[in-house]
Amino acid sequence: MIPEPKANSSPLVWVIAVPSPLHRVFEYLPPSAAQNTPQPGARVKVPFAGRDVIGIFLEDRRSELPAATALKCVETLLDDDLPLLGSDQLQLLRWLCEYYLIPHGEALQLGLATPERKGRPAWTAEADHIAIRHGTETINKIPVRATKQRAAAQFIGEHTVPIASLTKAGFSAAVVSALIKSGVAERKRAEPPAYSPQPTVNLTDAQQGICSTLKAQMTGFKPHLLEGVTGSGKTEIYIECIKEVIARGQQALVIIPEIGLTPQTKHRFEAALGCEVPLIHSGLTEAERGRTWAMARSGAARVVLGTRSSVFCSFQTLGLIVVDEEHDPSFRQQDHPRYSARDVAVKRAQICNCPIIMGSATPSLETLANCDQGRYQHHTLMQRPHGSALPDISLIDTRGLALSSGLSDEAINQIRFALERKEQALLFINRRGFAHSLQCEDCGWVAGCQHCDSSMAVHRTPPHLSCHYCNTKTSVPTYCQQCNSNRLSSRGIGTEQLEILMNRHFSTTPVFRIDSDNIKNMETLSQALDGIASAESAVLLGTQMLSKGHDFPRVTCVVVVDADSLLYSPDFRAEERLLQLLVQVAGRAGRSSLPGKVLIQTRSPDHSMMQQLVERSYTDQARALLTRREVLRLPPKGAMGLIRSDSKQEKDAIDFLDTLREQLPIRDEVRLIGPMPTLMTRRANMYRYQIIVHAQTRRAVHSLLEAARDIGSQQKLARKVSWFVEIDPTETL
Ligand code: ADP
Ligand code: ZN
Ligand code: ZN
After folding, report:
1. What whole-number distance in Å separates Cα of residue 653 and Cα of residue 644?
2. 193 has pLDDT over 80
3. Average of pLDDT values for 472-479?
């Protein structure tokens, strides 16, 4: 029998996750006014490190600390009704902090909308609508001389209308309040959004087949990969599955990689489903985010569309998760807390016991490996609807060619032909600005960034140099800082330079430049997309902003201006990335009935990847890459982790890792590489060093990283460096 705790031994405490970088939870005494123990997931206000913070209640227990410790009291319980974090969210977030080795408090915050994290009440709809009470006959009770009130009441009729619409129709605020005061009308909240699914396109047999297979499996946890070439109609399949889930009274979450894709995608889903599809992404105001969060939590939102962070949203009954473009590197959060939204989504589906569909034209090797192992079901859609052909890809060997602003004559001619046919051309270049760098022709000096191991890019509008890593900007020097020569010239083509060239060649054709200098927010992006949609012939040029997901039906010619800039990288994922990028860019061509042509300019036409791009399907090439990973035991055929330390003092960054490595347990199954500098060692004045952890199994890597986290926190230097451990890193440079 377990002995009863002695009456005055350890006190009953509440265990709270507090937003702090420490990897532990904290004990507090219950607030003096507490009647009952709250449910796990409730928010509390607690004193922490000299200020009040919002924490999450996890459980109550007898204190595990020595009795003498003076514990602080919880100040207030904020959610004494229902906790804002649902039990599935709580389970997910606790898993997140264990798996990704992130502090409890930081992980749990992710399950709340921004205003909720600050302790504000959950968003509730304002009563900003008005309706007539007790039926329209009441209108007759309004005195005949109150003509304005009568007219306003007639205007409202049997509906619940926004008060703003009355004002717009010319009724004054006084008339509205008179109606409410006399009891004829009352303030109301907006009706919950309607749902009226629209008939969709006639699915092709291939789409229909996959749809039926998927729909038959819309209960229980089951991960699916929908591999379909760009424009094959994957989105139509998502929509059909979502309808099925909504019909059962459940909700769906659709996660996409790019904030820039949200307006288009929202519009498409809303049109097909006939209901509001609220958004979650970083470009929204706090209030907008709070609203989506509350709508999802209450069940009023049938579908939520969002980027990475939406995977943590609260739902009443989540019945399906869709992750579109699942291969996209932006699903990996590269800042604290580091996690992969795609992998978290799979875990969430498992916890919610619902299916998840991951779609892509270029699935990640991780996901393909999961299919091979029978963990995910693999569906393929290799044809575009109604036979619109996949584009024809060819290489242009640029060795020895005279290029104008990076373009070969052949590329310029093909662009011209497309424009003459009243079609559009898309130019992809991986670099914004006018040029890659500024170099002295006499001594070879390159204008570098003061704060990074990097050259500065040249910009023309307005003229300046800019470091694309730390954002430092300077004026353009006129003399070499090494030999004083004035013969400075720019190297490497950027988007601005191509834009000038295109305007010169095709002066009557609109040119849309899509890069982060030109497209600063959703509004400018929408304008550009609208412009592209309404233009006949046009030139679209830009960085990877253009390569993702957008549907440009009139584009029939795609030029990859400089594939080589992407070809040689020491990262083991570089080939996979390049392959995905090129196939995705190529996929922008000929999506409607117009056939497409893709030209890839390269000085390495004999490189096996370039050859295969022309000759083999993505799937074949991905299989070949997987075999190579198998030989080298690299992920997903092996596991990796890293320990990184950044510091203003190079020595501190190295010393921290050296000492840590000495203290790490030695395990035969784990290989440690480093400490070694990252590829760009100095970035924004921080020296970045790392230890790579490599093993056959993720379990081995994970357990070593756990040890590293605990040992590292004890080190003196831990306070002087900024350091972290990371499991399944996507960037190991
Ligand atoms: P994906 O998501 O695979 O890139 P989409 O679902 O966006 O493909 O489809 C590409 C285009 O083809 C869209 O304009 C879509 O409306 C259209 N489409 C898809 N399926 C069909 C179909 N069965 N019949 C006609 N048009 C279709
Ligand atoms: Zn010089
Ligand atoms: Zn810099």
Report:
1. 9
2. no
3. 96
SS (H, E, C) 207-231: HHHHHHHHHCCCCCCEEEEEEECCC
Ligand 2: centre distance to CA 446 (Å): 8
Judge residue 196's burial from the number of C-beta atoms within 10 Å of its C-beta, 0-12 exposed, 13-18 middle, 19 or more buried: exposed
393: left (phi over 0), alpha (psi -120 to 50) or beta: beta
Q: Is the CB of 234 under 6 A from ligand 1?
A: yes
How far is the centre of ligand 2, averaged over its atoms, from the C-alpha of 445 (Å)? 5
Q: What is the average per-residue pLDDT within 675-679?
A: 93
Contacts of 620 (CB under 8 A, 6+ apart): 612
Looking at the CA of 231, name the nearest ligand.
1
pTM for the structure as a whole: 0.89
The pLDDT of residue 591 is above 70? no
CB distance 402 to 251 below 8 Å: no
The pLDDT mean for the chain works out to 90
CB 695 within 8 A of CB 701: yes
**Stretch 624-653: mean pLDDT:** 94
The reported pLDDT for the residue numbered 192 is: 66
Out of 203, 211, 225, 235, give the residue to mutate to test ligand 1, the one with the largest number of ligand atoms within 8 Å of its CB.
Answer: 235
Phi-psi group of 229: left, alpha or beta (phi > 0 → left; psi -120 to 50 → alpha; rest → beta): beta
Among all bound ligands, the one having the nearest atom to the CA of 587 is 1
Q: Three-class SS of residue 263?
A: helix
Do residues 563 and 602 make contact, with C-beta atoms less than 8 angstroms apart? Answer: yes
Instruction: Say yes or no to pLDDT of 461 above 60.
Output: yes
- Going by alpha carbons, the residue nearest to atom 20 of ligand 1 is 233
Average pLDDT over residues 63-77: 82
- Nearest protein Cα to ligand 1, atom 9: 233
Please state the atom number of ligand 1 nearest to the C-alpha of residue 236. 6
Output the furthest CA–CA distance in the chain (Å, rounded): 93
| CA separation for the pair 208, 189 (Å, rounded) | 40
Instruction: Tell me the angle at which helices 608-615 and 574-586 cross, rounded to the nearest 10 degrees.
Output: 40
Residue 417 scores a pLDDT above 80: yes
Q: What is the rounded (10 degree) CA torsion for 395, 399, 402, 403?
A: 50
Which ligand is closest to the CA of 206, given by its number? 1
